[in-house]
């Protein structure tokens, strides 16, 4: 467990990118925790009781108290365990820089994630193409954000990984899997060179190597889910 009486339990399921964010934050802080795998078809009493509003993973349970929503959990971990790990904070110390970092985390959640989801969950080819268009626009915006936030340093957080790195880093395997499934580049070396180099650098961190789901596995998982969704849609159209 986390030490000095702290008990941490993570309700998760492979290969959720939102769970990956929390695993990254816990790993960066060097915190140990119990991983409790969830069945999202038959949700456990523990999940339903811990996240009664959204009923989604991840949930972090700290000494019996649940914290929900991956971006909030990551910030909670940083604030609850300020001295853990190598000592580097995920949130900047300066209030203005904290606000800027939180803005970009919200941008990833509100713009990047829904566009990425639409690239493979869109009901028609047009919806998927529109998702890809919006995703590439978000990538272009994030390329500028990386330039401004990093100020020539390796990460959004500067010399060390910050909350924006964790928010976007948790999605890297899925972005790569989507590139393979869609047959087009998202973190394109030519159109978004800083972001492409950042993704490579982030993926090489020890914590990322341990935690990021294997890309081929994610591709297989996504194909399986898409086939299931297509079969369910076909069955529904017959009724
Ligand atoms: N905004 C949420 C998204 C979490 C989410 O979508 N979790 C999915 C798994 S990847 C889930 O629990 N789905 C179950 C459901 O929707 O019933 C977060 O960042 O934590």
From TrEMBL:
Would you identify the family this protein belongs to, as annotated? Answer: Belongs to the GST superfamily. Tau family.
At the top level, the lineage of the source is Eukaryota
Give the EC number(s) listed in the UniProt record.
Answer: 2.5.1.18
Q: What class of enzyme is it?
A: transferase
Example GO CC term: the record gives: cytoplasm
By its UniProt entry, which Pfam families does this protein fall under? Answer: GST_C, GST_N
Q: Which residues form the GST N-terminal domain?
A: 6-85
* Limits of the GST C-terminal domain: 94-226
Instruction: Please give the catalytic activity noted in the UniProt record.
Output: RX + glutathione = an S-substituted glutathione + a halide anion + H(+)
**Database matches in Gene3D superfamilies:** 1.20.1050.10, Glutaredoxin
Keyword entries, A-Z: Transferase
Q: Can you name this protein? A: glutathione transferase
GO function terms (MF aspect): glutathione transferase activity
Q: Which GO terms describe its biological process?
A: glutathione metabolic process
């Amino acid at each position: 467990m986390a030490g000095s009486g702290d008990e941490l339990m993570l309700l998760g399921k492979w290969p959720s990118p939102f769970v990956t964010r929390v695993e990254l934050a816990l790993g960066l802080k060097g915190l140990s925790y119990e991983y409790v795998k969830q069945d999202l078809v038959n949700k456990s009493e523990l999940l339903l009781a811990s996240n009664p509003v959204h009923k989604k993973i991840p949930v972090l349970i700290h000494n019996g108290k649940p914290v929900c929503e991956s971006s909030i959990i990551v910030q909670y971990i940083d604030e609850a365990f300020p001295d853990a790990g190598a000592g580097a904070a995920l949130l900047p110390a300066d209030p203005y820089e904290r606000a800027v970092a939180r803005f970009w985390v919200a941008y990833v959640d509100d713009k990047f994630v829904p566009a990425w989801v639409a690239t493979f969950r869109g009901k028609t080819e047009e919806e998927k193409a529109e998702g890809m268009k919006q995703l590439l626009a978000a990538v272009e915006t994030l390329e500028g954000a990386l330039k401004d936030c990093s100020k020539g340093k390796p990460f959004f957080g500067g010399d060390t990984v910050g909350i924006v790195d964790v928010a976007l880093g948790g999605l890297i395997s899925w972005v790569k899997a989507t590139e393979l499934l869609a047959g087009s580049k998202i973190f394109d070396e030519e159109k978004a060179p800083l972001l492409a180099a950042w993704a490579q650098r982030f993926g090489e961190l020890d914590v990322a190597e341990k935690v990021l789901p294997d890309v081929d596995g994610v591709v297989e998982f996504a194909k399986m889910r898409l086939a299931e969704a297509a079969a369910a849609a076909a069955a529904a159209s017959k009724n």
